[in-house]
Each structure stands twice: as C-alpha cells, then as structure tokens.
C-alpha cells in the first residue's frame, strides 16, 4: 500500500470506531495522530501531498454520508491546476500571502500551498464550524501556517491585503440583504448573488497588482445580474484569463465551471488600456502531451505579462 492509502486506512479505521458522525471521527483520528498516541504506518519521509490526499479520501467518504449539500470538496485535478497557475504567478516572490474567503475543508488552499513548497502563509474564512475543525486539524498535520476565521466570508474581515486570493466560489443568492448593502454589487431589487459579492470582497483584500483565481460557474456572465458584475470588474479589476475546465470533471455538464483570473490594478496599470484576455480550454487531463502543451501556454502567457 502507498503512504496515501495507509494514511486513509488509519483515519478511516479510527473514525469508524467513533460513535456518531464520521467526520467528527476523522477529526479525532487526526488529533490522535498529532498527539503521537497513534500514527499511520508510512514508509520513508511522508510528503505533504501524501498526507493531504489521504485526508481528502477520508473527508470525501464522510461527505458522501452527509446530508448537507454545501459539504463539498474541490476536485483534485482542478486544485492541482490552480496550484500550478498560482505558484507560477508568484514564482519570483518570497513570503507569499494567500486568502480563501470560502475555504470549506481547505483542500483547495492546501493544494495551492503545497505547490509553493513552504513559501506561503494564508488566511482562511469559513462559516461552518465542522468544516473549520477539519481544515484546522489538516493544517496542523500539513504544517501549513494558516489563520482561520470562523465567520461569514462576506462580513468585514480583519485580514491584511494579500498577494493571492484563491477560491472555489459558492454560487447562489446571498440572504443577508442588510450586509449586502455594503457592497457595490447589491442590486436595486432582489437579492445579490453571493459569488458576485465574493469577487468584490476578494478585490478589497488584494494588494495592488495581486491576483485572484476563482473557480466559478460557466454562466457567470449570462445571469440577470451579469451587467452589474461586468461594470464592477471594469472599474476595479483586470480580467487576465478565462480558462474553461473539461466537462468530464463534472457529473452534469450544466454544473461545469471555469477558472477566472483577475488582477487588481496598480495606479500605472489603471492608466493603460486593458490587456488582451487569455482564453483557454483545458484539454483531456489524461493526455500528457496535450497537458504539456497547455502548461507551456500558461508559462508563455505569464512571461509575457
């Protein structure tokens, strides 16, 4: 068995022995591991990615048993892709700071941070207490420096401006109209879209010149509030890239998503005309040759910025 399989087996067996909710058992198993009382059988120096993947398997099993639809995790293939792009955008920077305003279990954030090989610290915001507990114990096992905020990610955040925002955005209407009035993208009638407000919240917490990488719905610019979104982005952001994800990653094509890359302009950038937007489609991720060509396209695009 691989280290990842051994880690999953250890957590799964411990979680299964606990009475009650499986995901609470996952947390207990990880706490036991952290304390040194019981540890999985691994060979050699276990890597952070092996730990993350073993944890991911256990958490996914627990989520399948959950009746709560918001308990979902970003697919690994998407996380690895976002990690590659994010680490490439800041490859010449040290002490990179990140923010995920809707972190969930933290799997996307950890995938990105692992790709940066110890050069990043992060802030993670999540309102669901169980998901925060899972994310926090995962961060301890992965030895990733993360500060957690247990709150609505669209409420005021005590987070300093960061170099990168990454997030798999929750999609739907935001129910707190009183709070939504603090945002430019609150419509004159009806509820605001939560994913629209997360763009605004994220740009407010980016450093000038910083990037936001967002996984979002393919019909983003086709909704009834898309005009409001486009006007806001034109005033406050530079759209750098729209990267369509393969339909094969989604059970239902109507749920397909793309990666939207925004940059918060500096004063110099704001005075210039907007650059061309890179439009790309991720090929079959099982085809190594096509993926090599795709990553080369990403590298060339970043070098030409």
- CATH fold-level label of the largest domain: Rossmann fold
Q: Provide the helix percentage.
A: 40-55%
The geometry reads as globular
Stretches where pLDDT is under 50 for at least 5 consecutive residues are none
Distance between the termini: 44 Å
Number of strands: 8
User: What is the mean pLDDT?
Assistant: 93
Tally of individual domains: 2
Please identify the structural class as seen in this structure: alpha/beta
* Highest CATH level, the class of the largest domain: Alpha Beta
Output the radius of gyration.
20 Å
Strand content: 15-25%
* Strand arrangement in the largest pleated sheet: 3-2-1-4-5-7-6-8
CATH superfamily of the largest domain: Vaccinia Virus protein VP39
The CATH architecture of the largest domain can be given as 3-Layer(aba) Sandwich
Described by strand count, sense and barrel closure, the largest sheet is: 8 strands, mixed
Order of helices and strands: HHHHEHEHEEHHEHEEHEH
> Helical stretch count?
11
């Amino acid at each position: 068995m691989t280290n990842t399989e051994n880690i999953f087996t250890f957590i799964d067996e411990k979680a299964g022995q606990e009475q009650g909710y499986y995901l609470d058992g996952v947390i207990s198993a990880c706490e036991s591991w952290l304390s040194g009382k019981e540890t999985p059988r691994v060979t050699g120096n276990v890597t952070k990615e092996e730990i993350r993947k073993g944890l991911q398997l256990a958490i996914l099993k627990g989520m399948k048993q959950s009746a709560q639809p918001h308990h979902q995790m970003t697919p690994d293939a998407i996380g690895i892709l976002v990690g590659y792009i994010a680490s490439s955008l800041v490859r010449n920077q040290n002490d990179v700071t990140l923010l995920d305003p809707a972190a969930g279990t933290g799997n996307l954030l950890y995938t990105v941070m692992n790709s940066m090989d110890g050069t990043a610290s992060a802030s993670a915001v999540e309102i669901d207490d169980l998901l925060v507990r899972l994310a926090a114990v995962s961060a301890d096992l992965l030895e990733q420096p993360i500060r957690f905020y247990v709150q609505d990610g669209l409420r005021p955040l005590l987070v300093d401006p960061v170099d990168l925002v990454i997030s798999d955005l929750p999609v739907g209407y935001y129910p707190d109209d009183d709070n939504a009035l603090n945002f430019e993208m609150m419509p004159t009638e009806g509820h605001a879209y939560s994913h629209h407000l997360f763009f605004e919240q994220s740009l407010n917490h980016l450093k000038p010149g910083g990037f936001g990488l967002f996984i979002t719905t393919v019909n983003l610019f086709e909704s009834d509030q898309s005009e409001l979104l486009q006007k806001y982005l034109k005033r406050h952001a530079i759209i750098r890239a729209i990267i369509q994800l393969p339909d094969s990653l989604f059970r239902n094509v109507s749920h397909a998503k793309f990666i939207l890359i925004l940059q918060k302009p500096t004063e110099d950038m704001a005075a210039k005309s907007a650059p061309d937007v890179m439009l790309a489609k991720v090929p079959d991720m099982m085809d190594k040759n096509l993926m090599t060509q795709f990553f080369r396209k990403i590298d060339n695009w970043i070098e030409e910025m």
